[in-house]
Structures are given as structure tokens and as C-alpha cells.
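Pair request: fold both.
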Amino acid sequence: MTVSHLTDRTPSLSPDELVTALVPPPRFDGVRFATYVPNPEEPSQAAAVRDCAAFAGRVAEAGRKRAGWRGLFGGGRDTGPMGLYLDGGFGVGKTHLLASTWHEAPSPKAYGTFVELTHLVGALGFAEAVRRLSEHRLLAIDEFELDDPGDTMLVTRLLRELTEAGVYVAATSNTLPDKLGEGRFAADDFLREIQSLSARFGVVRVDGPDYRHRGLPDAPPPVTDAELDESARRHEGSTVDDFDALCAHLSTLHPSRYGRLLDGTSMVHLRGIRPAGDQSVALRFVAFADRLYDRAIPVVASGEPLPNLFTEEMLAGGYRKKYLRAVSRLTALARDAGQVASRDR
């Protein structure tokens, strides 16, 4: 069986493809509020399901009012917040709830990560991005990045234009560089960073431990290089790449292309995992890990254990939450690969 390499791929997306690609990734394509399983020890989770469902209902009702006779006279306007912010640590199901909100809301609607949104604005131009997105009833933004002031201001301006045009916005967020919380991002920080939009956002808390590892075993240990090669040969659609070579290749691509890089891939094999050389390498790999997780692609790795990807110095810094989330997601994907291997025996 021929094994391919991610480092041989240089994907690209046209502006039109960037717009049509604004849908939940495969892992969250089938999620709904009914498939979210609240932790019985965390009442905020069940409450979050109700609040998100109510927000989706408001989006639907606003669409009906605009299309109905009351819209002719300007009556029946929704006076509630146009935005919804899901506040909580990693692994509590915020993306599940965000995607469920998107699925529940009527079309037209768009769903993307913050990186995909900024890339869209860059590709289309600000005015054209506003024009196209203003046609939607809901924009869902996962992983709203607050560690780049320029991008934050750009998207804040974009959201202001969209909400004034009647578009509802739902979002989750990542942490600021100087926030050292174990896994939380404070809603106050999000609202402060989006400045003039803060009054337009309602906050929904989602508390609890990382569900990906609740009552489950740790990730399987690294495999040998020989075992890695054998696994790749055994599974159709596998890729094999040296860790250092892949990290170098990721530096040549905009992070918005990482998802397309994985098209047609059933299992990713990484040879020679070791601690990331510097923070820029580490953050690119975090973005890559997110796209792997979005697509539910199992990961087989040789070299050092996955938690060793990020040094103690990195974990003590401002991007701690991102690194911990990446380890959590990669661990889940390595566990998935182990289950596939067990079925094959």
C-alpha cells in the first residue's frame, strides 16, 4: 500500500471556497443539543444546553419576524443580546454546544474558527467579507483568538458591522498571553477585548473537568518506528511524516489551510515526536492538532510521549491553556488509534 506524506501537500482555497467551507468540521457535523451529555456534578452544563437552545430559538424567531408582516413596520425587534459567549475551560464541550447552536439555527449561517475568519477577510477584503457574511442569520466563531491585538480589533470591527446588520454571533475563546489559568478564560477578559461589543454579548458559563479523559486510561505509550510504519501500511488513507519535517512544512502554510491539508486522511503517523523547538513551532502545532481533532483523525506517534511536546517553560507561560488543550486532544486521538489497532488484532 502506498503511504502518503503531509509534507508533499500544498493545499489552497479560493475566496469562494473559503465562504462555502464555513461549516462545522466533521467531528461536530452530527452533534446536537440532544447528544450533549451534561456532567451531573456540574449543573452549569445542563443550564448551558438550555441557554444555547434558547439563543438558537431567538435567531429563528428573528428570521421569521424579518420575513413576516411585522418586519414591514419595524415591529417585533429582538431586544436581547445579539451575541452569545460560551465561557469555560477546555474539555467541557463548548465547541459541541457552539456547533449545536449552529445546527439548530436556520440558514443561511456560517461557522468557522477565528483564524479562518481573519483569513477570509484578508482574501475577500473587509467590505466584501461584510457583504457576504451580512447575508447570514448566525455566525459561529470557535477559538476566538485574543492574543493578537490587530486581529482582535479587525474582527471586533467586523462583528460590529454584522450585528448592526442583524446577524447573531456565538463564540468560544482562547486565552490572552498573560493569563495563566489552568484551563479557564475569563468572560470579563473577552468582553473587555471586544470593547464596544461587550454589551451585545450574553455570557453562558460551562464549568467542569476535561470530559475527554473522565474515567478513561491515559494515551498509549509511543510506538517504535517499525510499529509506526507497519500501522501506516495496514490502514488505507494513512500519512507518515517526520515530526521536524512536518513542523517545517506547517510554517510554509497559513493555519487556515491546515484542515485542507488533512483531506482524505484516515490516520496520521508522526515519527520522532520531541519537544517543540520554540514557541512559534509549538503554536503552529497546536493549530494543527485542533484540525486533527476537528476531523477525528487518529494519531500514531513514535519518539517522546505526547505530553512532552511542550516544555515546562512553555507550560509556565501565557499560552499554557492552548498547550494543555492540545495535549488533551492529541491524547484522545492517540487513544482512538490504540482502539483501532486493538480491533485489527
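--- second member of the pair ---
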Amino acid sequence: MSPKSRIGHAQQLADITPHVSADRLLAEFVPPRHFHTARFDTYRANSQYPSQETTRERLREAAKQISGSKGWLTKFLQNSKKAPAIYMDGGFGVGKTHLLASLAHEVGIERTAYGTFVEYTNLVGALGFAKTVEALAEKVLVCIDEFELDDPGDTVLMSRLLRELADRGVAIAATSNTLPDSLGEGRFAAEDFLREIQALAARFEVLRVDGEDYRRRSVPSSMPGLPDEDVLDLAEGVSVDGLTTVDGFDEVLRHLAFVHPSQYGAMLDGIALVGLTGVHPIEDQSTGLRFVVLVDRLYDREVPVLLGGSGLDCLFSETMLNGGYRKKYFRALSRLGALAQEGRLLVGREVA
């Protein structure tokens, strides 16, 4: 029985097609809800990995340096080489995003632009390159979370954008799971773009953040799905402060192909719980990457998820997990696992 034939008070994510203005896109360049309270003092550095504490202290210093750039004259006179450009590299769940959000809060949200790599490329698409530069140059700090290069066009785009901002004295801080001088490696073989990648890498002071994925301490590495009928019943019966959606997995995947990724966040406006029935392994790369973006937006907004079908098990094919985008997929599994655990806790079906 499909979700459409069973919907009670629940709605469907696949029926939501938002239209997001460029002004809203720009206004949303702030740390996500999940990191609204992130501060340097709330970051729990693991004593077994000294690089975590070292990184936190370096970012504290950077915040003081950045906060000294108060007026346009100071920024104009400031040598661009003195504007910090920091690149945090490390595995999943070691707290890089927490530290990045802490830096943004320390400098001041009103003086900072904060977004993921794909959100910046989407912003350029919405505003145009020149207007994006002008808008971001109004800030003293630009934070880029999950800095990844998916195609040669993005390489050139982000390299130009960062050069323009750095030349205007804007500080840059980024996180990624790939060292700067390895960007593009294993994703596309194009010698023409090697120079762009190297020039981009030279802008950053690299801080390695070692550690374990903290989400794996409380989130099962394997989580089979709930029976689809249970997902329907639980999603429709649970009391949450907001809307509940229930969709067939394939319906959502098809819908994502017709909605621009910059609008995935707006699809989730007012939604407090997402149920997905018939979850199964994803074999297509483009489909998988779109779903990764949706998972990121769900995670940013702390929306619990109920997974039916096969759940997390074998969600992405072995080929995908071993390919050039494997780090995106493993990040998505880590985040989706956390959201699925929250969903189960919400309805009393937690995984032991």
C-alpha cells in the first residue's frame, strides 16, 4: 500500500516544490540550527587527539585577528596575506563543523557568511558571480563547510571567488575531508585545472583535526529499516511540534531531480519528522549525490527520520562507496544514522 493511499494528517515531501528568492538564499548564510549553540567552550576536545585542542586554540587566535577588522578603511589597508585563511581537514564527526560554527559565532553572525560548498555555488547561480562577490565582501569572514570539488567548473568558480574575497581582505575558514593539495584527486583527471587547484591550496593554513566519529559512539553502524506499515502508522500517530511527511523512497528520489538543490532546505520548512518507506540501495551516482544534499539539509535542521525498507543497510552501492565521492556518502550515512536513531527514539523504537 503506497503512502498516498494511507496519508492521514501527514503530508508528502514529494508534493513540496518551493521557490526561493536570492535574498532568502543570502539571508540563510548562517550556522545551521544544529550548531546554533556551538561555541569554543562547548567543544569537547578529546585528550587522546591533541590536534583537536590545538585547532581550537588556533581558531580562538584567528577570531581575535579577524575581529580587529572593523571598518572598510582597515580592510582596504590590510594586506590580503594577513587575512586568515584556515583549512580544517579530518575525518567525519571529529567536530570540524562545531569549530567552524564556533568561529562564526565568536566573530559575529552579522559579520560572517556561513554555508556549505554547494550553497556557495548555488548562490553564484542565483545572484551571478559579481553580485555574489559584492555581497560576501561585506563580511569580514566567509566560512565554507564541507569544501569539495565535484566538477572542473566548480574548481574554477570557487578558486576565483576565494581569490576575489581574499584580495579584499576577507578572512576564509573551511572544513573538508580532503587536504587542499589533493582536491580533485580521484574525481576528474584534468591537467588544465591542476594549476587552479594548487593556487587554491596555497591560500590556506592547513589544520589537521584527528579523532573518531563521535556519532558512531551512539549510532549503530548498521540499522535495518522498520516495516513500512510501521513507518506509516508511527509517523501518522506521533505528536510533534510541526508537520510530518511520509513518502515512498522512490517518489522522493524522483522529486529531488526536479528541485534545485539550493531549494532542498526550503522543502523542509515547518517539517518536524520525515518518514520514508521502501528504502532500498541507491545505484545511480546522480541520484545518490542529490540524496546526500537532502540528508545534509535534514541534519542542519535536526529533522528526525523514520526509515522503512532496507534502512541504512547497503544504502549506497559498493561502487559508490569506493569511488571519488565516497567521503560524501560516508558523511551522509553517519548523519542519516543519527537522524534515524532520533526518529526511533521519538516513536519508542530505538536500536539497542
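Observation on the second member. Residues 191 and 197 are 10 Å apart (CA to CA).
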